[in-house]
Amino acid sequence: LNTERDRLSTYFDWPPDVPVSPEELARQGFFYLGHRDRVECAFCGGVLHQWEAGDDPFIEHRRHYPHCPFANGEATANIPLGATSPPTGSPGTAQAVVSSPIGTEWPKQPDFADEQSRLSTFHNWPRYSPMSPLRLVRAGFLYTYVADHVRCYWCDGGLKDWQQDDDPWEEHARWYGSECGYVIMNKGMDYIREVRTRRPPVVQQVGLLLKQRLKKNKISYSKPQFRWGVEAGIVQSVLDMGFDENRVQAVIQNHWQRYNRPFTTATELLNALLPQEESLSFQLTEQPLDPETMERELRRLREERQCKVCLSADACMVFIPCGHLCCCEHCANMLRMRGRRCPLCRALFQRVQRAFLA
């Protein structure tokens, strides 16, 4: 979504009551995520929502994401609306002279462009999953080696918790269609619009769910559960690892009550979450679970803690800045010497940090 025209095209179902125009948001680097007023920067990945009258997208962008190259007027691949090549010297533009009509110009993981390479990642696909690896592969997905979590090789969008009647193409289009070149090339924008009209993506926001649950239970709690500009990416990275949403919500609420502030790093949140796993194993014995459900839950817990490279030692190292806890110390040091890429999301990492159990 490097061109302003492509970003603007994602706002076809933008809510009319939002007091910020799609034209201004697209001009400031944002594309629409298809849910309420939630938008994402095409250049830094920053997400903003809950727009109010008088908000200036340029100011909000720099306030919440001060290191974004686009917001800081640094060189990017942006092409403004109506331009054949980007001008120089203006905020948020750069040196690119061509753009692709595809939502994401290049695949995030080009090594998995052919179906056979993606299929090779499914050798350890869980037997309990009702979804066929071949159907997932044809829809652009590769396996992440965590439970039934998969990611698209092009847009890097992740999906999990597959059900018997799920359609991989439809889920792909529903959640990531407007920003994924693979879906656009294979299915087209008409298909994406049809899917999203029939089944709009419902983003389960941790803070919103917790607020609704507390209201339902008539519990008074006025503090926000996380600040979108600071903590949203941290929370999402932890959810992507497979941590249970209820546990994340409980830890965030407890942190606010004790310290009156949000989590500021993924490591901090992980260190608060990891001790919960031990207590959860005891909670499982207190509930009347059938053997199959208990075995599935215990297998999920073991997979969460397992190193995703050697599949034997416990994961104890966090990759920064993506925040994934997925390797033991030995494998993390090996990856540091061999390409410095996170084995889960394939993003480059700057450093690794040990996560200690409290």
Please characterize this protein's 3D structure.
The chain is mainly alpha-helical and 358 residues long. The protein folds into 4 domains: 1-99, Inhibitor Of Apoptosis Protein (2mihbC-IAP-1), Chain A (Orthogonal Bundle), CATH 1.10.1170; 110-198, Inhibitor Of Apoptosis Protein (2mihbC-IAP-1), Chain A (Orthogonal Bundle), CATH 1.10.1170; 204-291; 306-358, 2-Layer Sandwich (Herpes Virus-1), CATH 3.30.40. Helix content is 39%, strand content 8%. The strands form 3 sheets. A 3-stranded antiparallel sheet has the order 1-2-3. A 3-stranded antiparallel sheet has the order 4-5-6. It has a 3-stranded antiparallel sheet with strand order 8-7-9. A hairpin with a 5-residue loop joins strand 5 and strand 6. The radius of gyration is 21 Å and the shape is globular. It starts with a helix and ends with a strand.
CATH architecture of the largest domain: Orthogonal Bundle
User: Multimeric state of these chains?
Assistant: single chain
Task: Supply the number of structural domains.
Answer: 4
Please give the number of β-strands: 9
User: Mind telling me the C-alpha Rg?
Assistant: 21 Å
Largest sheet: 3 strands, antiparallel
The CATH fourth-level homologous superfamily of the largest domain: Inhibitor Of Apoptosis Protein (2mihbC-IAP-1), Chain A
Terminus-to-terminus distance: 42 Å
Text of the CATH class of the largest domain: Mainly Alpha
Q: Averaging pLDDT over every residue, what do you get?
A: 74
Series of secondary-structure elements, N-terminal to C-terminal: HHEEEHHHEEEHHHHHHHEEHE
Mass-distribution shape: globular
Helix content: 25-40%
Low-pLDDT parts are: 84-104, 203-230, 277-287
Protein name: RING-type E3 ubiquitin transferase
Enzyme class: transferase
Subcellular location: Cytoplasm
Catalytic activity: S-ubiquitinyl-[E2 ubiquitin-conjugating enzyme]-L-cysteine + [acceptor protein]-L-lysine = [E2 ubiquitin-conjugating enzyme]-L-cysteine + N(6)-ubiquitinyl-[acceptor protein]-L-lysine
